[in-house]
Amino acid sequence: MENFILYEEIGRGSKTVVYKGRRKGTINFVAILCTDKCKRPEITNWVRLTHEITHKNIVTFHEWYETSNHLWLVEERVVNHMAAKIIENVCTTFSAQAQGFITGEIGPVLWYLFKHSTVDSLRITAISALCRITRHSPTAFQNVIEKVGLNSVINSLASAICKVQQYMLTLFTAMLSRGIHLQRLIQEKDFVSTIIRLLDSPSTSIRAKAFLVLLYILIHNHEMLLLSCQARLVMYIERDSRKTTPGKEQQSGNEYLSKCLDLLIRHIVQELPRILGDVLNALANVSGRKHPSTVQAKQLKMCLPLMPIVLHLVTSQVFRPQVVTEEFLFSYGSILSHIKSVDAGETNIDGAVGLMASEEFIKITLSTFEAIIQYPVLLKDCCSTVVDYILPPLVSLVRSQNVEWRLFSLRLLSETTSLLVHQEASVDSDSDLLALIRDVLLPQYEHILTEPDPVPAYALKLLVAMTEHNPTFTRLVEESKLISLIFEVILEHQENILGNTMQSVIALLNNLVACKDSNMKLLYEQGLVRHVCNLFTETVTLCLDADNRNSNETAAALLCSLLDILHGMLTYTSSVVRLALQAQKSGSGGDTQAAEDLLLLSKPLTDLISLLIPLLPNEDPEVFEVSSKCLSILVQLYGGENPESLSPENAENFADLLTVKEDPKEQKLLLRILRRMITSNEKHLESLKNAGGLLQALGRLAPAGGSSADSTVASLAQEILQAAGR
Questions:
Q1: Domain architecture of the chain: domains with CATH
Q2: Span of the secretion signal (predicted)?
């Protein structure tokens, strides 16, 4: 018993005395029973029954001791629990009796019981009573904070059990709603962080009340929204929004959570225009100034760091559809215009907020629009606002001395233009978008395309995006005299054909050649054939190199694009030649000279025949299809011009293909290519006579009596064999 101090006697029986006691070193009062040893059996049974039981209606047993003459039991002193329970029950009602408990000491007394009791049932009763009395008079909890300190209360909230946390959140809600301790609470970062951590609670009620407390904080201090976003508030909102989706069967707790969430979401959505307005006002006040005043610098330091809030909201599926409006895009475009002024050196904010903070602000602002354009539906009804207010400053940033902003703006322009062109099926000559690109952006390309990587790559991606969906932009590229610049980029980067720049160049050439309105004559005259031959040769070499597996995927993608380019060029040439021959035959006097000039310009493409044939056995059916079409057009136009067309290796490829291919259509195409080669060049005929494997393959296709579907195949094979003297 040396650990306890005995006070006055508080009760007596025939062989038992009850004392008020206290454990040394604490202020926890207990009931200490002193009884005669003759009652050992009763005491033993009592201890056995109660030492593991915790219940609000059973006195809690703590420990027992034995001295020479007595047994001593230490139990909970029930008086405090009963008093707290009475306050809790009476203050549940709004009666005159409840008003009688409202004194200056009631709050601290209940808090004292809560903090110093070792029994959860008493702690819960005490905090519940404090919660109920605070409904009548918030000063009760105010007195607690003033006496023990806000940090102590916050620490208790963070470490409490769920039931206590629920009551304490109710206490803080009552305080904030009445404006008591308002300024201190809304400025206390630890308080906000603790509330947000409670959103991890498994209890629906605790999360709902935490959202409600945060709502009161944000109503009075919107700067805390930044801290909340950084502490993952948006993520918690999204998580609980999914759990409370309309249409799901909701329990009462979920319904309450849903209402609290809706209130918080609505407030944050309404708060965003104010934040953007503050940022705009701060920037407008220093626009054109090299040396902002102290007041202006302070305003910038307060407002610019709030920009990450915007990024957090536009990347959220809950907030994004509600905040990205036409008004939002207009404000965003205005901020970009100020950034353009800062980048051009017309406005100086570095001195006010620091270089790192200034660059971070610009980066966050650009990242915001990058997040928006990932969801084209957001811009569907606001295209004119984007073109009028957002694209012009982005175009200006292309001239930035900061390489990061230059690349960022080019990437945004590329993706945005692609969206706008895709949504606007027709772009006429009076289009604001067309005028902006023609008059402001494209004149900069002469300088941009000569810069070091990766600037040209991003600039070319923008051209690819422009020309992919709309022929108007293809004409614009031609009229802007960019073709020669594009070919200079090829010469500059041809040693790295798998690099991003060359991939963009090839994609752009593919778009230009595929467009029906392209000026192909211009492309041919400026060297398209030579460049395509070089690119095709190098790409095929990479694809056929068995040791170059690491880059096979990229090389294969480039090969498909180059095959499409080659097929487009050959189709164009074939069409011009056919029209000239038809005109000549009909006597209408077609321009045969133009056709002859075009054939002459295209003649270097015959060098590709010896590369196209090894591509025919490719596993990709698309490669075979386009390669065989290109080969067919080349031999139709130029016959057996290429001396390596039927080299032993190529003859063997033809033999394998004629053996493997079972589709009569594919067999006929291959046989017609062979027939054209040998009938137009004696050297190829001699090569065929010496190609035993190819002759055997032809012999298997030639026997008479085949089905009607194969009759043309057999006839072609027989004709080739006869030409070879078989």
A1: 4-76 (3.30.200.20), 96-221 (1.25.10.10), 645-726 (no CATH)
A2: none
